[in-house]
From TrEMBL, chains A, B:
It is an enzyme of class 2 (transferase). Belongs to the class-IV pyridoxal-phosphate-dependent aminotransferase family. This is Branched-chain-amino-acid aminotransferase. InterPro entries: Aminotrans_IV, Aminotrans_IV_CS, Aminotransferase-like, B_amino_transII, BCAT-like_C, BCAT-like_N, BCAT_family.
Amino acid sequence: MEDQTIRVELTNSKKEKPDENHLEFGRVFTDHMFIMDYAEPIGWHDARIVPYQPLVIDPSSMIFHYGQSVFEGLKGYRTETGDIQLFRPEKNFQRLNHSNDRLVIPQIDEEFVLEGIKELVAIDRDWVPHTEGTSIYIRPFIISTEPYLGVSPSKHFKFIVIMSPVGSYYKEGINPVKIAVENQYVRAVKGGTGEAKTGGNYASSLKAQEIVEKEGYSQVLWLDGMERKYIEEVGAMNVFFKINGEVVTPQLNGSILAGVTRDSVIQLLKYWDVPVSERRVSMQELYEAHQNGTLEEAFGSGTAAVISPIGELRWNGEHLVINNGEIGELSQKLYDTITAIQYGKVEDPFDWIEKVNLKSKVNL
Amino acid sequence: MEDQTIRVELTNSKKEKPDENHLEFGRVFTDHMFIMDYAEPIGWHDARIVPYQPLVIDPSSMIFHYGQSVFEGLKGYRTETGDIQLFRPEKNFQRLNHSNDRLVIPQIDEEFVLEGIKELVAIDRDWVPHTEGTSIYIRPFIISTEPYLGVSPSKHFKFIVIMSPVGSYYKEGINPVKIAVENQYVRAVKGGTGEAKTGGNYASSLKAQEIVEKEGYSQVLWLDGMERKYIEEVGAMNVFFKINGEVVTPQLNGSILAGVTRDSVIQLLKYWDVPVSERRVSMQELYEAHQNGTLEEAFGSGTAAVISPIGELRWNGEHLVINNGEIGELSQKLYDTITAIQYGKVEDPFDWIEKVNLKSKVNL
């Protein structure tokens, strides 16, 4: 990308901000958005921050037909001193480029895009809520916009970032969830798109999710698509199990998303000298550990909930209650530590925090 | 759907039509489009034919993030008498509803939508080309439009139909293609979305396609995602092999698209008393048939090309040349017969043809 400037057009009509005590996830968006365009042979160009507005897109645009798209999700946190900081944002843009490669979407300049997002956060700083547990959710995404019905990689794309103030995932403290092991539907298989953050993975998950919700379960636990034996992910999160003092999580095998929170959990456990391993974990192994009393904790990890304890697993008609359906000690410690780092309440020994310079170059 | 009327708003500025002798696939669109909206709890509503125009969609709309979408593809053919006719359109709308079910998209009224498309074709009748081998490509699609970042089924959708005049797939006669058997990437797996016509399946196929194109192959042949042994599809077509006088094609196992042309080929073969079976076909079986001289023909089937003969298969470094790289007798007969039925040049013993009433209710 030759032109590394970001054009800024500020809104004339600021929107009313929502009540910080009743924030829903992803329904209200800030006053501005970041956009840049891609066209062959120019490459990425015309990076700009503009008023939040609808996209005007031809109905033949590829995104509506062939799903060539990727996205990311990260958060900005308000500290007690009023600063705003991001959590490991460089990991999100590394992963976005990894997803781009799988989806045949041109690479982005990770540093430039991160600067653009920090500029956007600075401009919409008043949208970052102050209430305990709240944050600004940042959604970068890329869509294919060439107006052409041939099945081939698009020659036009848009990279867009929108932001939404969000409440605490746990309004009344952390409640362990009930999870159903999925035996019929498959999320991804080796050779597919499971390790890319692309729309199709989420579209394909809706059916299984709908079925288990009706049965009283909050999410599904996906098994591998080849043998239907090995654990992959839970819902849209990575998953961990504490068995006889050791924490295990499925290895990154090509069909699992490499979660930023997953990586942070592993680093923290190593820092604490808690045994942790990334390896194949079968449902049969979990069942046996439950039967002999060594399945001590289970939890999902992700940007939205950080740590989501699992209180019950349903598998083949069996109901495995874990840790009496209560949050485990280690799950709680991980949640407390990661959120404390995110909100700047404790030291950050891993250099995970990236501060946003609120003295934006833009004159507000 | 309670209100079964279609509102019509005609364009004031008709576009110039492209040269019928140089039509590209899917780049130029007709003067009008069909749209209807879905919202809970109203259901599908406000069916309308309006001037072809860009969509104005919020950047938070689910289609840009989670890929909840389905589509179809069919053609309208100009007969020698100037009539326009469709080929088995009811099959496309049955399949669209099947795809809808898998993607958690509300069912459409198949008969009503077919009436809407016939009305659209009648209004844009002058866009249906007359030149030999040309047709109007009709693209119905549904996109999720709720402005919400939660991963859950959308509560708002748009059903849209756009149309594009297209040339003959074979400008200089049918040329058999070279196909590479794909060993690394997987299109779909049982339990996934392979039998639904949804964007994610096409997005995930782009990478493998890009690689083999650089190696001089026109498409990939997908193997099953579990054992990587059994034939699934070729590119975006179904596939058939004639082995020792019998035609075989992979059975519909949950990960293969149920092609309309595929079904038509099977019906025609039965009508002609040619042995045909739908069953598992392994690459090893094809290899052995090739070695002992019984792999007589191979071809893909789909709406775009109708019949696409395969002249060479690359598999594990082996190059299997089929029928000396020439189109086989049966492939040619299938192509000739299906296209003759589509263009109304021969009788239609199967009741496949649906005529469009060109006396549209609309006053042009």
